[in-house]
């Protein structure tokens, strides 16, 4: 993949861009093997590859510059704004959308936020595209509600120009720190749910719910989890840190009892909608802390699936899972280091299968799926 911004030293987000893609995969696989060196792995599967460009379904753009000439992208370490509207990681459709958003910012009077001066209103623009139908979710992250009415008055023009805008909202982030979004979300459209589908599973994305940024690789990840779980003959499972339910809904069958747990209520609302559309009667989702839920339950499912944030599941949950002793654990991780440290704590389990999914090409990051079976 060629990137003029990288060549000009304006953006180095893709740190591994100069490395040939096959070598990137080799280095990620070697690193994973090193981290799991103390854990015998029964079966290593080949890495699942990604497209080199155009694979991201979501853009997180810092808004800088002036209201008349806004810049959408990042801020260079030297403090100058860098326009990323032509970033090759985004689908081609994003370029036209960004081109229409820039004059809209001026029309709505959304002054870009200046971090140094702590002045201005518009901090970020968050754009998500559905691979199912090309519909869009657009979120404006503002410092306050000061410009909210101006934005609402200008919005019909943007909606006429971009009829694919299905979900529009404003997030209020008043803290003068590098925090992407705040707790308050204000809907600007009646619809606040973006339809998506991976494989044969309908999924939904709401403004504050997490969704993978590489849908093609995510689809392969979920399909692999379904394949592995389907071969175990289980009748009950938990899906902890379940997000919008991608893993659990792929693995569930009409006969299986599934409980999905996620702290974010927005994501749980999406998961419940998907389960209803799929006609799954033995599935339940709840907005709870995953560790608190697990440690407070007496029942033991056949399999516990965990998909935690980068910090991993931690010693408390590892200890409880060991004590609870489900026959199988399925661990999906975006941080191989914490995956390895957690598996080391799960000493009563043997690692059956491991596969790397290259969710983040041109970086050191990846997603890893590991199946663990209780010894004895």
Automatic annotation (TrEMBL):
**Alphabetical keyword list:** 4Fe-4S, Iron, Iron-sulfur, Metal-binding, Methyltransferase, rRNA processing, S-adenosyl-L-methionine, Transferase
Q: Which Pfam families match?
A: tRNA_U5-meth_tr (PF05958)
Q: Which domain of life does the UniProt lineage start with? A: Bacteria
Q: What is its EC number?
A: 2.1.1.189
- Indicate which residues the UniProt annotation says bind [4Fe-4S] cluster: 3, 11, 14, 87
Q: Which GO terms describe its molecular function?
A: 4 iron, 4 sulfur cluster binding; iron ion binding; rRNA (uridine-C5-)-methyltransferase activity
Q: Where is the active site?
A: 334
| Top EC class of this enzyme | transferase
Q: Name one GO biological process term.
A: rRNA base methylation
Keyword Flavoprotein among record annotations: no
Q: Which SUPFAM superfamilies match?
A: S-adenosyl-L-methionine-dependent methyltransferases
Record's PROSITE patterns? SAM_MT_RNA_M5U (PS51687), TRMA_1 (PS01230)
Question: Which InterPro entries would you find in this protein's record?
Answer: 23SrRNA_MeTrfase_RlmC, MeTrfase_TrmA_AS, SAM-dependent_MTases_sf, U5_MeTrfase_fam
By sequence similarity, the record places it as follows: Belongs to the class I-like SAM-binding methyltransferase superfamily. RNA M5U methyltransferase family. RlmC subfamily.
Question: What is known about what this protein does?
Answer: Catalyzes the formation of 5-methyl-uridine at position 747 (m5U747) in 23S rRNA.
This one is known as 23S rRNA (uracil(747)-C(5))-methyltransferase RlmC
Organism of provenance: Erwinia typographi
């Amino acid at each position: 993949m060629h990137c003029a911004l990288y060549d000009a030293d304006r953006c180095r987000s893709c740190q591994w861009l100069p490395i040939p893609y096959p070598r990137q995969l080799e280095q990620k696989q070697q690193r994973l093997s090193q981290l799991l060196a103390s854990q015998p792995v029964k079966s290593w599967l080949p890495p699942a590859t990604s497209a080199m460009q155009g694979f991201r379904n979501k853009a997180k753009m810092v808004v800088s510059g002036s209201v008349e000439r806004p810049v959408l992208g990042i801020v260079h370490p030297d403090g100058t704004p860098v326009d990323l509207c032509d970033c090759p990681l985004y689908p081609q459709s994003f370029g036209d959308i960004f081109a229409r958003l820039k004059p809209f910012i001026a029309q709505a009077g959304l002054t870009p936020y200046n971090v140094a001066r702590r002045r201005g209103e518009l901090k970020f623009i968050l754009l998500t595209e559905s691979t199912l139908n090309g519909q869009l979710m657009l979120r404006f992250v503002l410092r306050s509600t000061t410009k909210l009415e101006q934005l609402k008055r200008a919005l019909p023009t943007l909606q006429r120009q971009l009829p694919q805008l299905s979900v529009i909202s404003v997030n209020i982030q008043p803290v003068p720190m590098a925090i992407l979004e705040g707790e308050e979300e204000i809907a600007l459209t009646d619809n606040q749910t973006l339809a998506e589908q991976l494989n044969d599973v309908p999924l939904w994305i709401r403004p504050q719910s997490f969704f993978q940024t590489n849908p093609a690789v995510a689809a392969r990840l979920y399909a692999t989890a379904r394949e592995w779980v389907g071969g175990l003959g289980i009748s009950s499972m938990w899906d902890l840190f379940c997000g919008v339910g991608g893993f659990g809904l792929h693995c569930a069958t009409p006969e299986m009892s599934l409980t999905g747990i996620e702290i974010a209520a927005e994501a749980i609302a999406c998961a419940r909608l998907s389960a209803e559309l799929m006609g799954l009667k033995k599935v339940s989702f709840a907005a709870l802390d995953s560790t608190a839920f697990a440690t407070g339950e007496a029942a033991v499912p056949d399999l516990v699936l965990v998909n935690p944030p980068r910090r991993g599941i931690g010693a408390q949950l590892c200890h409880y899972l060991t004590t609870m002793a489900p026959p199988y654990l399925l661990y999906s991780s975006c941080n191989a280091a914490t995956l390895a440290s957690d598996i080391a704590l799960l000493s009563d389990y043997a690692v059956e299968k491991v596969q790397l999914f290259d969710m983040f090409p041109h970086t050191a990051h990846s997603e890893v799926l590991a199946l663990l079976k209780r010894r004895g």
